[in-house]
Structures are given as structure tokens and as C-alpha cells.
Design goal:
468 residues; alpha/beta; 7-stranded parallel beta sheet; 16 helices; 13 strands; globular; binds uridine-5'-diphosphate
Length: 468
């Protein structure tokens, strides 16, 4: 059976743990097939962070990685748009990427595929020069993918800004979504970020295919549209959910030990992503809301408002561990009921713990998938990027989350936090959401099972890459 030639797949995740983690999980699945190895090429604007090195260190030998020389973004006055920060890091890394790919293709007899996420699309020209087929690993929902494929059409047909539309936007195969809930950088035209995303969305069709980190059982109507197979459509392979479920490399972490002592399903996990921060005022409301809910919680908290004056994907080592920005006396008053963890915690392992009963999330796609594979219902507190769309998806379509209302001051106020936390952890609605998320958990596990849809699609890709 194994007559296929051995081959190497090169991957370049753009900066951000949300890109690196799922791509590594995909790589781990790929190397289960014989004669296939993966090389990860990593661009960055900072020295490797502890979070990065921790996940990279635990990789099997069939996955190697190399860091491109880190590029400087210090000439930019201040990067207020995260997408542009990621984009520029990739753009400025292209010369060293070219050298690395050249050297790889001269040492390996067959580089079968080059895989990037959507921010790496400018690198595909270099792969094309070397006759390496490129694929996009799309790290968000099929809904977000559908939006990006639909964006050139929206750009042509919609007058004015998407955020000002009075009617919801109908993305093919998706729940209707208001313009102000769409991917943040495309809500307004006439800015650099809009043009950049439009540029990327026009480049999707220049690749051989899109590998989606979702699956048809989760987003059936959207995949029906995306996989219609019409002649001018780019192939979409669904391989999700690629999430970190590996429990074996978990150290006897003190947070997990704390969870061991809590009743089953009693703890709300609160974590708003790998790099974003919220304002001091919102941090305050969140703290008081949690305290007043009288529910157990494990909160991974970052110093407020550090976005504008720090690098995006900052090194955890550089973070201070002081919690002086929390309301006075908060830590003492909630001791026993709550545990506050500065900056970073092993989220995938925490969500898999039996004591977790809910997840207050910023709605990053990896966080959503991690919650689903562990059957944990959510509270949606989206911040930026495509998170508001994801919030619509998990509340209105999947029905596995509840979304607090934003007050007139632009904040989710503490009373509202308390209300949704109580509702999720104790109310009837929480039970319904729990039930529904367990159905999706089963669907996810089926998709990844022996004859599951994602396993089949992944094998199809491997077969293609191994067939010279
Ligand atoms: N993550 C983690 N610990 C943290 C924060 C984040 O392990 O304290 C992981 C999380 O499990 C997920 C990724 O970082 O795999 C974040 O990806 P996501 O798409 O949810 O959000 P992003 O940070 O990219 O906005």
C-alpha cells in the first residue's frame, strides 16, 4: 500500500498563538501518515515567547521548526490595528522566508505542499516560483471564511460602510449578521486594514485549496455552499476541530490542582484570548460581576489597556504578575471561591477539567472549538477581529452560548455580568446550552473518528500530496 514517495509539508503560521496552535495540531495529524514530515517556518517581530517555545518543545520529531530572523516594527508610530501588525510582520519576513524555502527545497527531494494561514497569502508567490502548491489553513469558522470569499462581491455592491447597513448582511449559507458584528477591519472602508483584507480575500483563489478548521456537522449550511464544487470554486477541505486535546504533556499545574478540589461542573473559566486586553473600566465591571455572582471562577487576567503601547504577541516573561489593577480587596474577598491567574494558563487542559461548568470567552475560534470538544457552554464577550461574528454564530446558530448586553457607556456592566454568569451556571437556560454543546461535542468527536468527515478529508489531502 505504501508505495507513495516520502514528502515534506512546509507550514508558515503568522504571528499569534491562535494561528500557531491549530496549525501544529494539524501537523500532528498529518504525521500519523507514513513518510510524511512537517517543517514549521515561524515569522515574528519579537523573540519567541514562552507560550510559543512551550508548545514547540513538546512536538514529535517528525515536526521540525525554524524561526525566521525577527523583523522590526519599531518604525511604526503605533500599531492600533492587530491585523496590520500581523500582516507587516509577514511582509517584512518574506526575504528570509524565500531563503529558508529555497534551502528546504534543495535539501528535501519533495516539498509537497506549502500551508499558510490567511495572513500568509503574500508568501504564496515564492512557493509558486519553486513549483510548490499552496494551501490556506483557515483558522476561523466556515462563516468567517464564507465572508472573506464573499467580500469582493460586497465591496462591489454595497454603498458606504458595512457597519452602517440597516439590514443584516446575508453571507452565503450563514445566519444573517449585522454589519457592526462583521470582521472589525472591514466594517469601514477607506482605511489600510480594509484594503489589506480585501487584497487577501482576492488572493484566496490563487491557492490550490482551503483547509478549514471547522466541520460540516457544526456549520452544515455554510459547508454546503462552500463545498458545492462548482467549476470556478476553490476546493474547501474541512478537517476541524484541530484543537489541543493532548492531556499527557500537562504538568501538575497549580491551577489544575485547585480545580481538583472544586465540585464537578461548578467553576466558570474566564479567559479573553492570548493577546488582547480590555480597559480598566471593563476589567473592574467584570471583577465585581464575578464576585457578586457568588459562583466559583478561574480568571486568567491581563493588565488592562496594554495594547497600544506593547507588541502584540508579547512575551509572557515580560509581563508582571501584579494584580494591583483589580478592585481593592477583590482577591482577598473571593479567595476560595475564585482563583486569579495573571496573563496565561493552560486553557485546553483547564477546559477539559471536570470541575469546569462554563467558559466566559472572547470568542476566538480556537477557544470556541476547545469549549465545544469539552462540552462546555459559553458566555460570549467578543472584543475584536472576527469575534463578534463568532459570538453571533455560537449564540444564534449553535445555541451553546449566551451574550451579555452592552450598556450605554459601551461596557458590559457588572450587574449584566452577574446576570449571565448566574444564568449559565445555575439557570434553566444554562442547562439547555449544556445539553446542546454536548451534542456538538459528540459531533466533533465523530468528525475526527476513524470514518469521520474530517479524517476522510485529511486523508484525501495526504493522498494528493503523496502522489507525485
Ligand atoms: N490560550 C491559552 N492560555 C491563555 C490564553 C490563550 O492556552 O491564557 C490559548 C487558547 O487555548 C487558544 C489560543 O491560545 O488555543 C487562543 O486562540 P483563540 O483563537 O481562541 O484566540 P486569539 O488569542 O487568537 O484571539
Amino acid at each position: 500500500q505504501e508505495q507513495e514517495a516520502s514528502c515534506v509539508v512546509a507550514m508558515m503560521p503568522s504571528p499569534g498563538m491562535g494561528h500557531l496552535i491549530p496549525m501544529l495540531e494539524f501537523a500532528k495529524r498529518l504525521i500519523r501518515h507514513n513518510n510524511l514530515t512537517v517543517t514549521i517556518i515561524i515569522p515574528s517581530s519579537d523573540p519567541p515567547s514562552t507560550a510559543q517555545t512551550t508548545v514547540l518543545r513538546s512536538l514529535p520529531t517528525a515536526i521540525s521548526h525554524t524561526f525566521l530572523p525577527s523583523v522590526s516594527l519599531s518604525d511604526l508610530p503605533s500599531i492600533t490595528n492587530p491585523e496590520l501588525g500581523v500582516a507587516l510582520t509577514v511582509l517584512r519576513s518574506l526575504p528570509s522566508f524565500r531563503r529558508t524555502l529555497l534551502s528546504l527545497s534543495s535539501t528535501h527531494h519533495r516539498l509537497a505542499a506549502f500551508i499558510i494561514d490567511s495572513f500568509g497569502l503574500d508568501a504564496i508567490d515564492i512557493a509558486s516560483e519553486l513549483h510548490i502548491p499552496s494551501y490556506i489553513f483557515f483558522t476561523s469558522s466556515a462563516m468567517a471564511l464564507s465572508l472573506l470569499l464573499h467580500l469582493p462581491y460586497l465591496d462591489q455592491t454595497v454603498q458606504g460602510n458595512l457597519k452602517d447597513l440597516t439590514e443584516p448582511v446575508q453571507i452565503p449559507g450563514c445566519v444573517p449578521v449585522h454589519g457592526k458584528d462583521l470582521l472589525v477591519p472591514i466594517q469601514e472602508r477607506n482605511n489600510e486594514a480594509y484594503n489589506y483584507i480585501l487584497h487577501l480575500s482576492n488572493r484566496f483563489k490563487m491557492t490550490q485549496g482551503i483547509i478549514s478548521n471547522s466541520f460540516p456537522e457544526l456549520e452544515p449550511k455554510t459547508f454546503k455552499e462552500l463545498q458545492k464544487g462548482e467549476p470556478d470554486m476553490i476546493p474547501v477541505y474541512s478537517v476541524g476541530p484541530m484543537v489541543n486535546v493532548d492531556q499527557t504533556n500537562g504538568t501538575a499545574d497549580k491551577y489544575l490542582t485547585w480545580l481538583d478540589d472544586q465540585p464537578r461542573g461548578s467553576v466558570l473559566f474566564v479567559c479573553l484570548g492570548s493577546w488582547e486586553t480590555i480597559s480598566s473600566a471593563q476589567t473592574h465591571e467584570l471583577a465585581i460581576g464575578l464576585e457578586n455572582s457568588k459562583q466559583r471562577f478561574l480568571w486568567v487576567v491581563k493588565r488592562p489597556d496594554n495594547l497600544a503601547n506593547s507588541t502584540f504577541f508579547n512575551d509572557i516573561n515580560a509581563q508582571d504578575n501584579h494584580l494591583d489593577f483589580l478592585p481593592e480587596g477583590f482577591v482577598e474577598r473571593t479567595r476560595g471561591m475564585g482563583l486569579v491567574v495573571p496573563f496565561w494558563a493552560p486553557q485546553a487542559q483547564i477546559l477539559a477539567h471536570k470541575s469546569i461548568g462554563g467558559f466566559l470567552t472572547h470568542c476566538g475560534w480556537n477557544s470556541i472549538l476547545e469549549s465545544i470538544v469539552n462540552g462546555v457552554p459559553m458566555i460570549a464577550l467578543p472584543l475584536c477581529a472576527e469575534q463578534k461574528m463568532n459570538a453571533v454564530l455560537i449564540t444564534e446558530d449553535f445555541k451553546v452560548a449566551t451574550r451579555p448586553k452592552i450598556g450605554e457607556n459601551g461596557l458590559v456592566e457588572n450587574e449584566e455580568i452577574t446576570r449571565v454568569v448566574e444564568k449559565l451556571m445555575e439557570g434553566e437556560e444554562g442547562k439547555k446550552l449544556s445539553y446542546r454543546v454536548k451534542e456538538l461535542k459528540d459531533a466533533a468527536s465523530k468528525a475526527l473518528g476513524e470514518n469521520g468527515s474530517s479524517t476522510k478529508q485529511l486523508s484525501e489531502l495526504v493522498f494528493m500530496w503523496k502522489t507525485p
